[in-house]
Design brief:
mainly alpha
Length: 95
């Protein structure tokens, strides 16, 4: 049996239904503004988390705490991210 790839256990029909409801509630002209706002919010969250991470790293280095363990974990996380990007690269839309 062939299984379809689902996003968060939601099928294609459910996604289309949600999109129709969103268009009906907000209107087609407001959707780009909403998406832009969500993108800015996600970017601000990412910037804030990277600032916190850099402050923690600086503080740890000042205190003489060994941060090589976190570097190893970061390398593993980056490997997983790269693998995930390779997997989803064909699915993404090119700008």
């Amino acid at each position: 049996m062939i299984q379809q790839a689902t996003l968060l256990f939601i099928g294609t029909t459910e996604v289309l239904f949600i999109l129709v409801i969103v268009v009906m509630v907000f209107g087609a002209d407001k959707i780009p503004e909403i998406a832009r706002g969500l993108g800015k919010g996600m970017r601000m969250l990412k910037d804030a988390s990277s600032d916190i991470k850099s402050e923690i790293t600086k503080s740890a280095e000042k205190q003489g705490i060994d941060s090589s363990v976190t570097k190893d974990i970061t390398q593993e996380i980056n490997k997983v991210k790269d693998d995930l990007e390779d997997f989803t690269g064909s699915v993404r839309r090119n700008p």
